[in-house]
Amino acid sequence: MQSVSVTHSDAAVQTEIYAKFFHGLSNPTRLRIVEMLLDREMNVSQLVEAIGASQSLISNQLACLKWCGYVTSRQEGKYVLYRISDERVRTVLQLAKAIVADNAEHIRCCTRM
Amino acid sequence: MQSVSVTHSDAAVQTEIYAKFFHGLSNPTRLRIVEMLLDREMNVSQLVEAIGASQSLISNQLACLKWCGYVTSRQEGKYVLYRISDERVRTVLQLAKAIVADNAEHIRCCTRM
DNA sequence: CCAATACATTAAAATATCTTAATTTGTTTG
DNA sequence: CAAACAAATTAAGATATTTTAATGTATTGG
Predict the structure, then answer these.
(1) How many CB pairs under 8 A join A and B?
(2) What is the pLDDT of residue B6?
(3) Residue A23, CB, strand C, below 7 Å
């Protein structure tokens, strides 16, 4: 959890929200879920199967993504189907991939933090 | 640090790299630095002043951003000037802001993780 | 050259996230 | 309705990140 600090400029507050937005995509499991859901609507079991992680982990990360507004869900019989709630996320991903492609050497990230 | 796991599909490996890309923008201090540098080249002292964080923190996060390829630096006299190394980062930020704007209610992020 | 300024590095403490394991809730099928 | 299946929740342990504080290195002005 993020701590709440007292004296923050508007810009800083805005930046914190954007940072949280990016945080949503900064975890491999979550990003993998988002990628899969960009292809098609899927239920939890399908995601568990496709990603090869525990049901618990997938459900937890789905809850996170849902809370953050990346995905929405609807119950269909005994399944819960998830899908991406904002198509523009696809564009963000495409752009990120383009940037990473041109910086392949570099982006592997910090040895220090 | 991220742990290295042994059995990972190509897709999973790619996803990890993209996750790292987003991780770069997922910290308020780092994102603030990136935003400032999108405006203009700045030295460390200027960033410290503008952001209102310790010199140590700014330097540490700059090292992170540099390692990840977000920024480059050049020495000029006793100052070290930093700038954004890939202009497309600006587009990523703009897109993120547009998405967040339309999901203002939602994106405040996980109470749970 | 030395003092001052600018920045980098390091390690460790404080915090946050990630993952798992166990359990619970909800839904359907026999 | 009971068993089976699907998913959510919770708390706690394992890890990772963030930040600070102290110290080191580089550059320049006097």
Answers:
(1) 161
(2) 43
(3) yes
Q: Within 7 A of a protein CB, which nucleotides of strand C?
A: 5-11, 15-23, 26-29
Contacts A67 to B, Cβ<8 Å: 106, 109-112
Q: What is the mean pLDDT of residues B6-27?
A: 85
Q: What is the pLDDT of residue B90?
A: 97
Q: Is the CB of B62 under 7 A from strand C?
A: yes
- Reported as a single tens digit per residue, the pLDDT across A40-89 is 999 999 999 999 999 999 999 999 999 989 999 999 999 999 999 999 99
What pLDDT score does A82 carry?
98
Q: Which of A65-69, B9-13, B86-90 has the lowest mean pLDDT?
A: B9-13
Residues near B81 by beta carbon (within 8 Å), at least 6 away in sequence: B41, B42, B43, B73, B74, B75
CB atoms within 10 A of CB B38: 14
Q: How far apart are alpha carbons A55 and B103 in whole angstroms?
A: 27
Q: For chain B, give every domain's residue range.
A: 8-85
CATH topology of domain B8-85: Arc Repressor Mutant, subunit A (1.10.10)
List the single best residue of B1, B10, B25 to mutate versus A (max A Cβ within 10 A). Answer: B25
Handedness of CA A70, B19, A61, A4 (dihedral sign): negative
- Answer whether residue B110 shows pLDDT above 70: no
Q: How far, in Å, are B6, B13, B15, B44, B81 from residue B10 at the CA level?
A: 12, 5, 8, 39, 38
